Structures
1.
Amino acid sequence: MNNDKTFSRREKKELIVGIVVILVCAIYFMYLNSRKLEEVKQQNIGSMISISADFNKTDGLFVGSVVRLAGVDIGSVSDTSLLDDFTVNVVMDVKEDVLIPEDSGVTINTAGLFGSKYIEIQPGGMDEYLEDGGVIEYTQDSMIVQDLIDRIISIGKSKKEKRNQAK
């Protein structure tokens, strides 16, 4: 870089190439994810049941998002709706032959750091299983990357202030 704090022509080209590479990678990963969603939809043709869960925050979760159990795709999100208490009801269509204990929980996870959101079901231990129209009571909301970064920065600032006070 030049001493006068301006970018040279070569540095500008390198920056543009870097941005283009990042955009191409992001588009490619979104394309792969959309293909995966289509594969899940094709696999899910057959006997399905609908189950639901209420969340406080579903950022990035959409109709068609994958539903997984133990890392295996078993269904997809079929509907989302805002309730009167400002929570979000998420309806999931899952394979009928997958037995989900009534005391199971669900979380909204992200595939990778910036991937798409999906629902992961954590099976409970009960011997009674959810039927069509069943409701999962135990939920964990979507984690937003920006919130996570803000939390990390806040913790770092707090620790720095404590060290400065100790001196």
2.
Amino acid sequence: MNLPENLKYSCDHEWLKIDGDVAYVGITSYATDQLGDVVFLDVTTEGETMQRSKPFGTVEAVKTVSDLFMPVSGEILEFNKALEDAPDLLNSDPYGEGWIIKIKMIDESEMKDLLDANGYRTIIGE
């Protein structure tokens, strides 16, 4: 399983990549493997401020529809518009072009509750 060491991970299978004062959020390759082929994303929370663990959208795959959860509290600055035409980027490049939202974090102390790659491997049984 591909788990970049430079990311933080939530127990809900989201990842977080810090870039200055913003962070990119996506779902892990483990999550996409469990979901199957992603066919649609519904993220209508752009511009909203969301609390950690609250759903910011849904991902629809061949097998199921699943909520997407905020790994930390923040303002949703941008939704990755490339996913509108190519939701399969979540399957093919979950840690790169398949990022879902860009956020401005409210409380960086919430980062302490996220997992590193080794911690995430433990919860998925790898």
3.
Amino acid sequence: MRILIVDDEIPARKMLADAVREVFENAEIAEFGKVSQVIDFITANKSDIAFLDINMPAMNGIELSKRIKDANPATNIIFVTGYSEYKGIAMDVHASGYIMKPVTADKVREEIKYLRTPVENESNDEKRLLRVQCFGNFEVFTPDGKTVHFARSKAKELLAFLVYKRGTGCSLKDICGVLFESGEYDTKSKNYAQQLLTSLVKTLREIGAEKVLIK
């Protein structure tokens, strides 16, 4: 599950993030203080729930919710604000919830009872093999939050490329074209790519996540 948190005020954003993490322990949470960052993020990433502050510079939460819905109509929008007069507008944009600040975990729990698009709040870490962070630096974590270390840095780049492909087909030639600056597809590059794939599989097997790769 992926959750967006957008608030330009750092203390309010931290309070909201802490409350959401208490409710959704295993969710991938992306925090933003600038609307421009959110626009870039949603073009490539789908989210299950977006908690949006309403009063923000450049673009308010109402307009941002429309942009998010255009990118992914299934996203549940929950507005977070210190003002009650926006409730009517929130209904007009078919929001899933409306939380008055200060935010608490109990308030979050109450609002998610009425999500327009149901989501599963995973409570069993066994359902998750890896947690991958794509925004900013590419990092891979085990379900308990430990960073995954790769024997070869290129093997980590290979996994990043496969994640970028989002489950679509990927050939050895595609891999060589992306990982190697020369872009050559000869016996030497194919053998090297196979070695990287073997190294990646070994790393994933060691942490019990080999099944994330489908060959």
